[in-house]
Design a protein that fits this description.
This protein is an alpha+beta fold and 310 residues long. The protein folds into two domains: 192 residues, Triger factor/SurA peptide-binding fold, CATH 1.10.4030; 78 residues, Alpha-Beta Plaits (2-Layer Sandwich), CATH 3.30.70. The protein is built from eleven helices and seven strands. The strands form two sheets. Strands 2-3-1-4 form a four-stranded antiparallel sheet. Strands 6-5-7 form a three-stranded antiparallel sheet.
């Protein structure tokens, strides 16, 4: 795995430990998030997506199916979640609509009926009073999520020209914190099954590489860490986790002599598989909307791949 990927992982962890104490937005009266009355929900596994243009193409194809509402396509998770009226269309019809595009392979992963969805929604609203997210049975209290989010919000006020983020900026930060927590938990659950050791020498060597990369001396490093609410020991722990992840990927995910250009794709595929076997439940309204928005955010790919007309 390239050092660039390692640095991105480490920086992503540092950013999510930002600085302030703003809580999650809560409605006085919780209301169901999804339009689930009389609708079923299909979860569809999709392979072959490469960019935001793929997300747009698939969403457009699903919206053309009569009886469909709220199709949400995630490039990172390689999945689509679609609400549909079972009296008008069916889950297999949704799969066919994607496969007809000719560029992707869609398979039906799960279908829930309206009764199941309403039961889940009722449970979610009740859980949201105390918990933000549940990851493989581990429930994260609202106060713990708010602490991490608050730190990131305060850091925004320190480094940006505006003290308070816009609604869209806050939404992105909420999604970043949630996705970071989810990714870190599912990754650590997986690699924790392996006996992967990391020496102090390896940690210090990686630390020196990062200092050289960012042209930081010891004093500048400490000042940067303090600005992010971290100390050197906390930073070393994140480096240790990054090294363990790299060792796992090289041993279990990347075949021998895998080109660097293919490692990003294999990593994304591995993460998608981890999500497939994970039980992730988001209780908070604000987090749910932010994560949905981040998962379905689309963008072009510079004129390549699926953005070209077939």
């Amino acid at each position: 795995m390239s050092r660039k990927i390692v640095i991105i992982i480490l920086i992503g962890t540092i950013v999510s430990f930002g600085l302030y104490a703003f809580g999650l937005n809560k409605n006085d009266k919780a209301t169901p998030y999804k339009d689930i009355v009389n609708n079923n929900q299909a979860e569809i596994k999709i392979t072959g997506m490469t960019c935001g243009s793929c997300v747009t193409k698939i969403q457009d194809a699903l919206m053309k199916v009569k009886g469909v509402s709220s199709p949400k396509v995630s490039l990172a998770k390689e999945r689509a979640t679609v609400l549909f009226n079972p009296e008008i269309t069916s889950a297999p019809s949704l799969v066919n609509a994607i496969n007809k595009l000719g560029k992707y392979k869609a398979t039906l992963a799960n279908v829930k009926n309206s009764s199941e969805l309403q039961k889940e929604e009722k449970e979610r609203i009740e859980k949201a009073k105390l918990f933000a997210i549940s990851i493989n049975g581990k429930e994260i209290p609202n106060k713990d999520f708010e602490t991490v989010l608050g730190k990131q919000l305060q850091n925004f006020g320190k480094v940006g020209k505006d003290f308070y983020p816009t609604t869209r900026q806050r939404e992105r930060m909420v999604a970043e914190v949630a996705n970071s927590m989810i990714d870190d938990t599912v990754i650590q659950n997986e690699i924790g099954k392996e006996n992967i050791s990391v020496t102090e020498e390896q940690i210090n060597a990686e630390l020196e590489k990062l200092k050289n990369y960012y042209k930081l001396d010891e004093k500048a490093l400490k000042e940067n860490l303090q600005a992010q609410g971290l100390d050197i020991n906390g930073f070393k722990e994140e480096i240790r986790k990054g090294i363990r992840l790299n060792k796992y990927l090289e041993a279990k995910v990347f075949p021998p002599r895998t080109p660097e250009s293919k490692k990003g794709f294999l990593y994304q595929q591995w993460m998608s598989e981890l999500y497939d076997k994970s039980d992730i439940r988001i209780y908070s309204d604000e987090i749910l909307k932010a994560v949905d928005s981040s998962n379905t955010a689309s963008g072009g790919c510079g004129g390549g791949c699926c953005s070209k007309k077939s």
